[in-house]
Amino acid sequence: MSDTHPPREPTTITHATLAGNPTPADGAAGLIAAQREHWQSTLTARPGMYGAEPSQPGRYATERFSAEQLTRVLELGAGQGRDTLAFLRAGLHVHATDYAPGGLAQITAEAGPELSPLLATTVHDVRQPLPFPDRSFDACYAHMLFTMALSSDELAALASEVHRVLEPGGLCIYTARHTGDADYGTGRDLGDNLYENGGFVVHFFTQALVDRLAEGFALEDITAFEEGNLPRRLWQVTMRRT
Ligand SMILES: C[S@@+](CC[C@H](N)C(=O)[O-])C[C@H]1O[C@@H](n2cnc3c(N)ncnc32)[C@H](O)[C@@H]1O
User: Fold this and answer.
1) Which residue in 92, 137, 140, 154 has a CA-CA distance of 20 to 30 Å to 61?
2) Closest residue by Cα to residue 118 from 165, 171, 75
């Protein structure tokens, strides 16, 4: 991802909205629509904005999933697919989801005829229940999706959904920016550790939130790492469905 924020676009975010007290004049629907459109237009205008190479957690997840033969992978917030393509090239089956269709179209094009038999895509907003049956995946991967404009309660509901669609013993690897990030506390304070900067809303994680999302999972590892020149400071969280 580039280290400069794309141009600011108008948003309709209020503290009350994200704190769980929607106001009639400026409700959650407006916020969701603004962020989704922001991502859709950004991903479409800037192909390859994250680069062509897999991310550090993407390489780690490829190794972990391959080593344990966790071949049915659900990816949330796949973006333009820098990690999706690494999974496909390793022979893993990937169901890539994102609420921005523009990124998913780029992944399909990049996969081409050779890798597309391993790829499925679904446009999906993770605020809604996952549109998959129970125990239909061996692994779940989400790089910088959990750290988006999602309240703690929405994240807990999402983690519960991930638990539902994973096989027992399945792995979930996700990343999130945390409260040690230099951007934490800057920009517009939306409550619940969410801040808006340059039109993007980020949820900065605490250890308590990581622990809350691990309900029903064994928390195997939390690794701190940095990405980009800002740098973004993130945690890579690995947890296994018990
Ligand atoms: C920071 S980007 C990361 C993309 C990709 N994982 C990567 O690292 O290259 C976050 C992605 O999450 C998607 N996203 C944000 N909120 C979402 C939501 N509520 N439901 C589904 N996708 C969402 C965005 O469209 C964007 O593609």
Assistant:
1) 154
2) 75
Which residues have C-beta within 8 Å of that of residue 98, sequence separation ≥ 6?
39, 76, 77, 78, 79, 104, 123, 124
**Is there a domain that residue 193 lies in?**
yes
The reply to whether 200 falls in a domain is yes
Q: What residue ranges line ligand 1, CB within 6 angstroms?
A: 39, 43, 50, 55, 77-79, 82, 98-100, 103, 125-127, 143-145, 148
In a domain, 77, yes or no: yes
Number of domains, the chain? 1
Q: How close is the Cα of 22 to the center of ligand 1, in Å?
A: 23
Task: Compute the distance between CA of residue 21 and CA of residue 195 in angstroms, rounded to an integer.
Answer: 17
For the CA of 32, the closest atom of ligand 1 is 19
Find the domain containing 225 and state its range. 38-231
Contact by Cβ (8 Å): 172, 146: no
Say if residues 77 and 94 touch (Cβ distance below 8 Å). Answer: no
Spacing, Cα 28 to ligand 1 middle (Å): 18
> pLDDT per residue over 159-172, tens digit each?
999 999 999 999 99
pLDDT in tens, 120-155: 999 999 999 999 999 999 999 999 999 999 999 999
State the pTM of this model: 0.90
Give the closest residue (by CA) to ligand 1 atom 27.
79
User: What are the backbone angles phi and psi of residue 173, rounded to the nearest 5°?
Assistant: -120, 120
Q: What is the CATH number of the domain that holds 102?
A: 3.40.50.150
Candidate from 124, 148, 175, 225 with most ligand 1 atoms within 8 A of CB, to mutate? 148
Asked, for residue 11, whether it belongs to a domain, the answer is no
